[in-house]
Design a protein that fits this description.
With 270 residues, the chain is of the alpha/beta class. The chain has a single domain, classed as Rossmann fold (3-Layer(aba) Sandwich), CATH 3.40.50.1580. Helix content is 31%, strand content 25%. It has 8 helices and 9 strands. It has a 5-stranded mixed β-barrel with strand order 5-8-7-6-9, surrounded by 5 helices. A hairpin with a 2-residue loop joins β3 and β4. α1 packs across α3 and α3 packs parallel to α6.
């Protein structure tokens, strides 16, 4: 079946970005990619030895960061000998730049040689036992955005989308970790209490505005995927106070050391 023209264009742009990335970092090929979401920026400084650090806008086909707390930078980092491509922030679907812009980092990571990817996010939790700062492994997701990041008749099997192997290793590293199903909404508004109840009835344990589309594209490109959410607040209707992005950033900062330790131990096994 012929590849859809939009997919060809998206992959060509990714190749252009990857070539520029190799030139600007001096690293010809990376092994693992990491996308740091809301509340995760402080972890970047704790991952390993930084080889190169630049604004994403130094690469073709990238836009400046929009969401608060997303730095709009990329780093090449040495983590125990693994060449890790770290994106400090992401482009969200609600920025209205299209699904290809929201998943461009994943395509660039694949074009740069990454065989696996760690997707992180800050999210709302539906389990009252998950206090702010609780990390949760993503076991599956529900796409509630009303759109797909794939083009045309591109059929991709999403069974075991989030690697059982990598999740098992994470739980060996940190036996206290829980797993949950992540529901991606479009945003940028936080979910209503009724929407949170709906997501819970559908089987979701976590709600947010990212990650699902990135995972789908990563699978379509043959990458192994690990998803890690940081519960930064109880979801709407469960939280005793109004939701705010400041709460998300604060929870991430408080958990940075623990999350960075987990990432530095799992990345060499990805």
């Amino acid at each position: 079946m012929p590849t859809h023209p939009a997919t060809i264009e998206a992959n060509e742009k990714a190749q252009e970005s990857a070539l520029a990335l190799a030139d600007i970092t001096g690293v010809g090929r990376h092994d693992v990619a990491v996308i740091l979401g809301s509340g995760w920026m402080a972890d970047a400084d704790l991952l390993g030895r930084t080889v190169a650090d630049f604004p994403v806008t130094n690469l073709p086909h990238f836009r400046p960061a929009v969401a608060e707390g997303h730095l709009g930078r990329f780093r090449s980092v040495d983590v125990s000998g693994e060449r890790v491509l770290v994106f400090l922030g992401r482009t969200h679907l609600y920025e209205e730049l299209g699904v290809d812009a929201a998943t461009h980092r994943v395509r660039v990571a694949s074009a740069a040689g990454c065989r696996s990817i760690l997707l992180t996010n800050g999210c709302g939790g539906l389990n009252p036992a998950w206090t702010p700062g609780t990390p949760v492994l993503i076991s599956d997701h529900i796409n509630l955005t009303g759109t797909t990041p794939l083009h045309g008749a591109h059929f991709v099997d999403l069974t075991d989308l989030y690697s059982k192997r990598l999740r098992a290793i994470c739980m060996e590293i940190d036996p206290s970790l829980d797993e949950g199903v992540y529901a991606q909404f479009r945003g940028p508004m936080y979910e209503t209490p009724a929407e949170v109840r709906m997501a819970g009835i559908m089987g979701a344990d976590l709600v947010g505005m990212s990650t699902g589309h990135e995972a789908i594209v990563a699978r379509s490109l043959g990458m192994e995927i690990l998803g890690l959410s940081l519960v930064t607040n109880l979801a709407a209707g469960l939280s005793p106070h109004p939701l705010s992005h400041g709460e998300v950033l604060a929870a991430g900062k408080a958990s940075a050391a623990r999350m960075a330790d987990l990432m530095t131990r799992i990345i060499p096994q990805m």
